[in-house]
Amino acid sequence: MILSGIFLGAPNLYAQNNAAAEKSITGLDFGVLPSFVYNTDKGLQYGALANFYYYGKGTVYPDYFYSLYLQCSRTTQNGYVNYLFFDSSHLLPKDLRLTIDMSLVKQGFQQFYGLNGYNSLYNKNYIDPHSSQFISKHYYFLGEISRTITVDVKGKLPIPHLNWDLGFGYYNISTMPFRSFRGHNLITPTLFQKYIDQGVIPRDQKTGGKTAYLKAGFTYDTRNNEAIPTKGIWIELIYLNAPEFLFNKFAYSQVTLKYNQYIPLNPKLVLAYRLAFQDKISGGIPVYMLPYLISTFRNEEALGGSKTIRGVLNRRLLGNGFVLGNFEFRYIPISTNAFQHNLNIGLNIFEDMGLITDQYKVDKSLNGLTFDYKFGQEKMHYSVGGGIRFIIDHNFIVAMDYGRVLDKRDGTGGLYLDLDYLF
Q: What pLDDT, in 10s, does the model give residues 381-391?
């Protein structure tokens, strides 16, 4: 995929520290590539992707006038991904920035490890056919189909670097407890089905539901570049409301605060970190809307897995509120020009962590052993690891990370082949 990107064309580089050696990109720059993305939690994803950037006369490079990302893929775990992402600060008048994020995703084997972090007791022997405790290889799975669209419009305020954001989101999520696999009925219920049977997951949420929300926020952004920032800070404060008048069956509101900082240690080495806090303010968040970290740019799956706590099991931490921390040293030792493109190779080491701070309500009168639950166990989850980045023309970034957990209750570790830096 990396070599295809070099020859076919794709999007841009580590310009801030190698400006003299960098070639300015003009006009339309694009890559049409085979998509082979691997994720320990989701398996191999194969298909095609197209990434288009329009730079005009190159006066804004490494920024762009328009960006469009398209992907159509299937997964080895009985799923598919159809994705469109558009971003531009030049389509609307008065320097308004428009971001559109649309997806249709099926996860044939979506992980479910319970609620409230370590309060849910994970036991890998339950899915190991060679263990005497074996229950089913599908014990921690359910089926899920998500249809989502988010639209954000951003504008500038009179204070330098301060911007406002208004957004709308629509999520239509279908969840399907495993009852059979390849024509064979499962003898024992999955963990997700146990949560339904015990009433922890309400029966009117067991098959998913629809949520429409409005979003308002502020951002403060002094980054010198968005794709590969080497200095500056980026703060997001977001208020989300899913009100009854948008025909929500479950009305709620929540707040998200994120603080990102990028500290240059030398011309090629940067310390980058992200601190995030998200919590419910009112109402009741339906279970199927818990696994998301809200953003003014692109929502991310949380917590656990490739985009939040690398190495920790995907969606290991589900609750009404959480804190998240990511700390990285980013080093780019190689910067060159080849095939009329800017090419870079970067290395990074990281530590990720997260904690459920506002737990989803679980009735303490229930016998937790019937759904592998024990109150009072939650504490900070940690992972450490490293990765490599192949950067073509600054904006097209092929990423590979490996994270290792520090507590076996979070699994063992995870390998992720994906795109872009984490934040």
A: 999 999 999 99
> CA 2 → CA 37, 52, 147, 392, 400, distances in Å?
12, 16, 30, 9, 12
Other CB atoms within a 10 A radius of the CB of residue 279 amount to: 16
Contact 241, 168 (CB under 8 A): no
CA separation for the pair 103, 57 (Å, rounded): 32
Is residue 66 included in any domain, yes or no? no
Q: Which residues of 159-178 are buried (b: 16+ CB within 10 A; e: fewer)?
A: eeeebebebebebbbebebb
Whether the Cβ atoms of residue 120 and residue 370 lie closer than 8 Å to each other? no
Kindly state whether residue 91 falls inside one of the protein's structural domains. no
| Cα–Cα dist 74/80, whole Å | 4
Q: What is the pLDDT of residue 20?
A: 38
Task: Give the residue among 192, 165, 183, 342 at the shortest CA–CA distance from 258.
Answer: 165
pLDDT digits (tens, 9 = 90+) for 278-320: 999 999 999 999 999 999 999 999 999 999 999 999 999 999 9
User: What domain range is 181 assigned to?
Assistant: 113-419
% of the chain exceeding 90 in pLDDT = 77
Q: Quick check: is 400 in a domain? A: yes
How many angstroms separate the CA atoms of 22 and 309, rounded? Answer: 34
DSSP labels for 225-250? -SSS--SEEEEEEEEEEE-GGGT-SS
Q: What is the CATH number of the domain that holds 355?
A: 2.40.160.50
CA angle at residue 253 from 155 to 292, to 5 degrees? 80
Domain count, the chain: 1
| Residues 388-409 pLDDT 10s | 999 988 888 999 999 999 999 9
Question: In this model, does residue 120 exceed pLDDT 50?
Answer: yes
Total-model pTM: 0.90
* Burial class of 228 by CB neighbour count within 10 A (0 to 12, 13 to 18, 19+): buried
CA distance 113 to 209: 20
CB 172 within 8 A of CB 210: yes
Q: Is 158 part of a structural domain of the chain? A: yes
